[in-house]
Amino acid sequence: MGMPRSGTMSLVTALKQLGYTPYDFIDRIILGHLPSWTEALRAKFLDQGTPWGKAELDRIVKGFDVRFPDPNNPPLPSFTDPSFNQCVLDVPCPFFTEEFLSAYPDSVVILNKRDPEPWLASMNSTLFRVLSWPSWPLLAKLNPGLAGVWYTHCTLTWDIFCSNEYGDKCKQKYLEHYDYVRRVTPKARLLEYQVEEGWEPLCRFLGKEIPEGAFPNVNDKDDFVKTHGMLWAYAMFNAAKNVAIGTASIGVGVAAWWFYRAG
Question: Is residue 217 a contact partner of residue 199, using CB atoms and an 8 Å limit?
Fold first, then answer.
């Protein structure tokens, strides 16, 4: 339930190696869940709609919570089976830590973290850099199904978190978030963790054998920006295609009207 750019993708990769199926931000894009999470943010923080509880979480994440291992009930290889040991990561899920713990009382929380100064520097060179690209507002209108959904969700998320201010206020809200998770999570079910610590504390907490090989280190700054550049390019391609189709339709309509008048 830590913030992005705090070893999240390395943790995702590690959890996969341990047999979990993480539900992170890219899954929310692929599965079309971003509008639902936008709805959840508005309900909780803006009093627009019904706040989410177990029914809403079940509908979206199903069995995606990390649970205490039970050797008598091993996880099943089913994405939708609620007994399957799974996990949720990345925003906005950490903002709903209290709701997850209430809905899934046997769940545990991994609070991945890093020092606030390098965290903010990483955010400003990755996600906040991407969000600052000036073409997003227009692209969101031309391609509402992808760019619009992504841009609306991301700007709302960071407006709620730090009023889209990416300096000292953002750093303070980062610290407040970690205090929030510590406050609502029973200590016996909480692991505060930095990916630099490697396999041992994570595996001990989850009751897993330490796998062979080094702990994964993935998703550097350049990869992050390149990935979102690909998202932007794909959205731009679809927007251009939509504009071309619309322009062609207008042209056909004008031509038909001209021939009608001429005849």
Answer: no
Instruction: Record the tokens describing residue 79, joined without a space.
Output: 């994405």
Contact (Cβ atoms closer than 8 angstroms) between residue 5 and residue 126: yes
Strand partners, 22: 87
The set of long-range contacts for 216-225, using a CB threshold of 8 Å and a minimum separation of 24, is 216/10, 216/13, 216/14, 216/17, 217/10, 218/9, 218/10, 218/13, 219/8, 219/9, 219/10, 221/122, 221/125, 221/126, 224/126, 224/127, 224/130, 225/126, 225/129, 225/130
User: In Å, how far are 117, 128, 129, 154, 228 from 134, measured between CA atoms?
Assistant: 26, 12, 10, 15, 14
Helix/strand/coil percent split, the chain, to 5: 60, 5, 30
Beta strands 109-112; 86-88: pairing state: unpaired
How many other CB atoms are there within 10 angstroms of residue 155's CB atom?
15
Best CA proximity match to 40, nearest among 82, 98, 113, 85: 98
* 131: alpha, beta or left? (left if phi > 0; alpha if psi -120 to 50): alpha
Alpha-carbon distance 102 to 215, whole Å?
A: 31
Amino acid type, 187: K
Write the DSSP symbol of residue 173: H
For 174-191, the pLDDT digits (tens) are: 999 999 999 999 999 999
Kindly report which listed range (161-165, 209-213, 223-227) carries the lowest average pLDDT score: 223-227
- Grouping H, G, I as helix, E, B as strand and the rest as coil, residue 232 is helix
